[in-house]
Amino acid sequence: MGQHARYVFEDAAADRFLVHRAAFFSEEVLRLEQERIFQKCWIYVGHSSEIRNPGDYLTRNVAGYPILFSRDNDGKVRALVNVCPHRGAIVCRERSGNARSFHCMYHGWTFNNDGTLRGVPGQDAYGPKFDKSRYSLPEPPRLESYRDFWFLNFDPDAVDLHTYLAGAKDYIDLILDQSPSGQMEIISGTQEYDIRANWKLLVENSVDDYHILITHRTWINYMANSGVDMRRKPGEMLPKIGRGVELGNGHLTTDNPNYRGRPVAAWISVYGEEAKEDVANIKAELVSRLGEARAERVANTNRNLVIFPNLVINDGSSVTVRNFTPVSPTLMKVTSFALGPVEETAEQRARRLHAFLTFYGPGGFATPDDVAALEAAQEGYSAHRIAPFNDISRGMHKPMADQFDTDEGHIRVFWRRWREIVEA
Ligand code: FES
Ligand code: FE
Description:
The chain is of the alpha+beta class. The chain folds into 2 domains: 43-157, 3-layer Sandwich (Rieske Iron-sulfur Protein), CATH 2.102.10.10; 167-422, Naphthalene 1,2-dioxygenase Alpha Subunit, Chain A, domain 1, CATH 3.90.380. It has helices at 27-38, 161-165, 168-176, 199-206, 212-215, 217-225, 272-290, 292-299, 346-360, 367-380, 409-422, and strands at residues 8-11, 16-20, 43-47, 56-62, 65-71, 77-81, 96-98, 101-103, 110-112, 117-119, 142-146, 149-153, 184-195, 231-233, 236-237, 243-248, 251-257, 301-307, 311-315, 319-328, 331-341, 389-391. A 7-stranded antiparallel β-sheet has the order 13-21-20-19-18-17-16, with helices on both faces. A hairpin with a 2-residue loop joins β16 (243-248) and β17 (251-257). α7 packs across α8 (292-299). The protein is globular and about 75 Å long. The model has no long low-confidence stretch (mean pLDDT 91). FE2/S2 (inorganic) cluster is lined by residues 84, 86-89, 104, 106-109.
């Protein structure tokens, strides 16, 4: 037990795993998370395809900081802290674009797209000792990528990204194998929404297959009513065939054979026979390139991957890259992108975007129900004095290797890592 309060209580002898609800609303917990998680872990910034050409940039909040994710004139990818070294104004206020330089709106200092200071109006007034090289836009000490996914780290001594990602790399590779060239791209059109709940609730929910039958009953009924066979075995809906998997360093995934003909959601009946034939062709290409077993893994399993702390890649009816940032202990901002193989045809792309919108979208079949559930939980925590604990014990009597995706073993993986860092 460290100097701080404890929030995670594990009693292996009693098969009980409890999380104190203060972990979801305390200002002190968020302060510790900012300092120990968001300043020390690798945090997702963006994807190479979003800044394809020299001069491309986009602005986003990463780990609580305004970041200018850009490609400079030499083609080098950068994460510049988008704050003016003069008096602190946000320098680039556009969402995205292409620029050789950035111009601060306050006093007009101008920066090259590699972050170096280019021009200062009335520079003479600073005298002869003024040294422009001292006034570059700051950069986090570390910026590294794995297969076009870029992450930053504010800790100069952090392990390298590849080591950090550990077993999560295998699951990223399974996604990339959907593309014949191994190239995926972010498809333009971002989903953004706020949830009035603690950010960790979305970590849990993204991989919580226990809730599907209840929270997503509307979707299950819709699918069943439109002729999709939602059963895997006689008499059983969404049976226990998926697994919850630990990937190291707090990363985890669900891994669920679904037999629904991924990729690109041919199983949604509105797409008709034409889509089925198209998907058969995609599958044939996968088999010829990867062999039967690997193709089956790539095309016919549903996976929800959590990269600790706040990146989720849902690899299901479409591929979504979703990350979320706490604004306060009880409010998060969520950003979600669709990812697809660069080779896709216009029809395949349209089906992918349809699945991205209608299932995972903020007005889709899944997300509004999830948001309602998360906000209900957050509201419930107001009674923490009389009802202090969340129970995350499901499946705890079995080893990790035997955890179903409907158990909570993989959710405990997240909390154990969280405890290691926050309660240290
Ligand atoms: Fe940017 Fe003054 S704050 S130029
Ligand atoms: Fe859900």
